[in-house]
Amino acid sequence: MRSAWVDRDAETIVAREAKRGVEHDLALRIYTTRLLGGDRNLVLHGGGNTSLKTHARDAFGDKVEVLRIKATGADMAAIEADGMPAVRLDALRRLRVLEHIGDEELVAIERANLIDPAGPSPSVEVMLHALLPHKFVDHTHARAVLSLIDQPDGEDKCAEAFGGRLAFVPYLMPGFGLAKKAIDVFERLKPGDGLILSKHGIVTFGDSAREAYERMIEMVTLAEGFVARNRKSVAQPTTPNNIAGEAHVAPIVRGACSQKDGAVEGAWRRLLLDFRRNEAVLRFVNSANLSRLSQAGVVTPDHTIRTKNWPLVLPAPENAALDEFARAARERVKEFAVHYHRYFERNNKRVGGGKRELDPLPRVVLVPGLGLFGLGPTKRDAIIAADIAEEWMAVVSNAELTGKFESISEADMFDVEYWPLEQAKLGARTEPPLAGQIVAVTGAGGAIGAATAKMFAAAGAAVALLDMDFAAAEQQAEAIGKAALPVACDVTDAESVGTAFDKVVRDFGGVDIVVSNAGAAWQGRIGEVGEDILRKSFELNFYGHQRVAQAAVRIMLAQGTGGCLLFNVSKQAVNPGPDFGPYGIPKAAALALMRQYALDYGKDGIRANAVNADRIRSGLLTEDFIRERAKARGVSEKDYMCGNLLGREVTADDVARAFLHQALEYKTTASITTVDGGNIAAALR
Ligand SMILES: [Zn+2]
Q1: Which residues of the chain have pLDDT under 70?
Q2: What is the pTM of this model?
Q3: Which residues are in the CB-under-5-Å shell of ion ligand 1?
Q4: Phi, psi of 367 (to 5 degrees)
Q5: How far is the CA of 504 from the centre of ligand 1 (A)?
């Protein structure tokens, strides 16, 4: 690989940071940290770290020597000065004399010595950076280096590849012990360029940002050359035939990897999926060695918190035998959970107990013939798991091509997975009520649909916004943020509905809650109205709901974890308005449709409910229309909008809240919630 250092870029960053009061060395530290972080061959998702030894003024204005080090879990590619807290160096150096120090105590001492007491906590590898004498220290988990050191004879391979320029530090879990061991090795061997941390990564150092960075690039290039020179050729694996597509496989995988919520009967704890298929992934999942390699372990310790130590391997999903695949998938997930639980018990006992078991579900699922799925409680977590799985495959494949892949021991993996400092990288997580759930809302470009999508997203769900006006769906999705998915969908067209739900499944992995909301109003006196008008209204206001519900139920049945269908049926469904038959009659049919779904799919755990809303400002009830109706009735617009028992205007948010409540009412089905401020003529029995 080549150095990405560009003088002009470095100068630009130095000039820009200077305006913010950031010194020259720190600006260059930021620059090369971003260069390292931006290359997937070097670090991924919060892995790796860099530091700078410099000076800072403390609260008294005294100049003190400090270590500026990447904050724990921070992303190197997007690092800023405040993502590199300053810690008093002399306090850290003095710790070296200690034989041992507890994690919490170490973190407390680090925090007590921060120049900015409110700053983020330093990287878990802070002591390694503090004890090395060099001004700039860079640490990555470079793919090519891992390919050499994740082998039984990694030390010999390093000696050959790096010609003694890097000293080899045997494996120890990250933290205080590793830092002490590394500095002992460094002082004994005095390597000129850096260190290899066995089964973990590489450290380079230098007097300038550029020197440390370019040494990293040089060493990684040597490792790449070694791998290229020593590659054995291997037979191409055979690809199984007649494999089902990911839109059919994902809901089965997702359902199998869900757990019943112990606290609420009928609720499920689910994960989101991220699918990957490319040549390298296919070669790996189709390989004859898959079962051995899948059990071989992580390529660098901190991956364990994202992917667990092993992926789940499923059989190839043949098109004609998806039921069999589904049975096998559920069986293998069960076995995976039992295996994980035993691993936990065994190792928790070894460390004297006291650890709290994490959920036993896989985070990476390998499907021969198809590809891989990353899984996580959010879409972002699923993407991270999939990225790391691809990286894992690349390292394992390279190691096998030049020798034999070997990870750290099970006990070592457990110690990292259950190390509180690693778990802290995931951040404090509060679980919103719909975390892990996937919601599709139709008519999401309109007022009620958009308010509903927004409210479900705020409750933690991943939301897909379906609308025939894609630009409107996109605009509303953007307002919600990254986790929202806009999808073009015309509910009057079965093919469009099918394609839209396939898209939701491909992006998120399945669907759990559908808010069938798209609709439009037609008017006409029923005895005189043209049949074409009535049919048009039925296409949208009845068949539209049926198509959406049908597509959703297919996915929900494949998941096998129940589901929830929510319909927007107007108050017209129970309380017809004069000349509003073309709208009210299909809505009455939609109400019957909801009850039929509740009846036919209750045994599958699929609930169906409806909201009966009235008089909401929206595309149906425009400002002009309100003005007209108010004038016709001889009342003010406000009185017209508040003409109900409570005298309150009903808003799109009120309807959204009703849908959200229905989604959370796990024992309620075939029910209608009225959201109209009180209208006794529309009251249900
Ligand atoms: Zn590391």
Answers
A1: 422, 425-429, 685
A2: 0.93
A3: 201
A4: -125, 105
A5: 36
